[in-house]
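Teaching assistant's notes for section 4

Start the section by putting this record on the projector. Ask students to predict, before seeing the second block, whether 14757_t:CDS:1 will look compact or extended. Collect guesses on the board.
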Amino acid sequence: MSQENSYNQNANERTSLFELPRYVEKRLNEFNIENFVYSEFNNITKIGSGASAIVYSADYAGHKYALKSLNTNLSLGHREIRRFIRELKILNEVNHENIIKLYGVSKCSQTDNLICVPQQMKS
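Reveal the predicted structure now:
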């Protein structure tokens, strides 16, 4: 049985640390979602938090972005990972003035947490 098939078989199982990055990377590549190098973000400032993520403001190559960092990848089950990837896919495909644009993803070098890199909303 392939890893992807075993990954999708039981949505209640927790994913291994080795399986998660390969699965996520494969899916993001399929959707042509850009990967940002985390170490190149500057002026990272926390601007909010919720039940599943912390949101930061950051500069990257002269532009301002939001960083939506999942609280922890270690406790994510298959269902949560699929939901996160589905959210990224939808945001990547939608182009509407009332919906924030997804620019890509990154991975925090200190925590290995997945980070969504959406447009930063104007305050």
